[in-house]
Amino acid sequence: MKDTLNCNIVRDMLPLYAEKLTSEESNTVIRQHLEQCEDCRTYLEHIQKPIDFPTVPKIEIEYMRKVKYSLKRRTYILSGVIAASCIILLGIFLRLFIVGSPVFIGDSPINYQWNYDTGREIYSIRGTLEQTKNSVRVKVYDDKQSNQINIKMYEIMPSVFFPNNHFSLDIPWNGDTNIVWQGKNNQQVIMGSQYLNLFISKFQDGNYEKLIDLFDMEGAAMIKRLYDNAPDISSNALVPFDETKYNQYMIISLPLTSGKYSAVWIADDKALQEQALDERIFLYEEDGQYYFYKQGQHLKSLSSKDIDEILNYIKTKR
Fold first, then answer.
1. Which of the 8 DSSP states describes residue 232?
2. Are residues 202 and 264 in contact, defined by beta-carbon separation less than 8 angstroms?
3. Are the C-beta atoms of 284 and 242 separated by less than 8 Å?
4. d(CA 317, CA 199)
5. How far apart are CA 152 and CA 139, in angstroms?
6. Which of 286, 297, 223, 208 shows the shortest CA–CA distance to 253?
7. Cα angle at 51 between 49 and 57, to 5 degrees?
8. How far is residue 16's CA from residue 21's CA, in Å, rounded to a whole number?
9. Of residues 263 and 28, which shows the higher confidence score?
10. pLDDT of residue 184
């Protein structure tokens, strides 16, 4: 590089020189030129001078802060309004489609059939909430404090979660607790061991004596087995038992393991208008032979082994 440079070339190199990006050889030539050229020295001082940015007036800064705070405050308020609206809408949705309104068995037209599977110890309910297009939600839980199983029903709007007004329950139950239909302020026992008691009483010389009154599904199954297996000795359905004809007999009431509940009376239902059959089984002796007598069924005879099994059972349980 030549020892001397013209001003245009030096000024093109000065920005690099100011940033210390030129080589040492170039620096030597540039410094020699700057010692001789005042205009280039002035130009170098100009490009090395710090740039003064205009300052924002304090009043403008305060205004911008207020605007920023106002925008932030409005954002918070809007977010709060949106959140509150979402919570309200969620509450309405849950109330209408999930939670619902309590329904009590005594206040609403609820029809259901029930069955108790003695082998599996399962109490089942199948029913509907009548006279409504709404759906039902049923909750079953153990009330440890009251030692009972509670059933709660809620009427809700139809949805994919609860599409119709039918309900179906299978409740494990061994007779130790009551099954209760729980309302908001009241309750009703719909199943308890006392409802499924085996009842045996004895009539003799004008007096009744209670022999058995207890929840014993095995004992009931034993007597039902003897009754079902006893041979028929008549072909006609029996009329009601004449309790004045015999001076001594037993009355056996087996527990009903199925039934139905209807909250709506149907006036033209012939089945409801007909007189209910006497479900009791009468056990009596005549001419040394024992018989099972039940209205609407055939007369059945018992063997001495059968009667001994029944008498031994009564002796054991009394």
1. B
2. no
3. no
4. 12
5. 5
6. 223
7. 140
8. 5
9. 28
10. 80
Report the C-alpha gap between 171 and 183 in whole angstroms. 18
Torsions phi, psi of 67, nearest 5? -65, -45
Q: For 230-239, how does the pLDDT look when each residue is reduced to its tens digit (9 = 90+)?
A: 999 999 999 9
Spatial contact of 22 and 12, defined as CB atoms under 8 Å apart? no
State how far the Cα of 156 lies from the Cα of 248, in Å rounded to an integer.
Answer: 57
pLDDT attached to residue 150: 95
Neighbours of 189 (CB within 10 A): 12
* 162-197 pLDDT per residue, tens: 889 999 999 999 999 999 998 888 889 999 999 999
Mean pLDDT, the chain, whole residue set = 87
DSSP 195: G
Type and span of the H or E element at 297: none
Question: What is the number of residues in the chain?
Answer: 318
**Which of 176, 200, 196, 177 lies closest to 317, judged by CA?**
200
Q: Are 40 and 15 in contact (CB under 8 A)?
A: no
d(CA 263, CA 134): 17
Give 289's strand partners.
286
C-alpha 249/C-alpha 283 separation (Å) is 6
Go through 57-68 and write b for each residue having 16 or more CB atoms within 10 A of its CB, e for each that does not.
eeeeeeeeeeee
If 0-12 CB within 10 Å is exposed, 13-18 middle and 19+ buried, where does residue 135 land?
buried
CA gap 142, 41 in Å, rounded: 97
Alpha-carbon Rg for the chain in angstroms: 48
The H or E element spanning position 178 is strand 178-182
CA distance 151 to 195: 18
Q: What is the pLDDT at residue 219?
A: 95
Q: Which of 179, 174, 219 lies closest to 199 in space, CA to CA?
A: 219
Q: How far is CA 62 from the centre of its chain?
A: 58
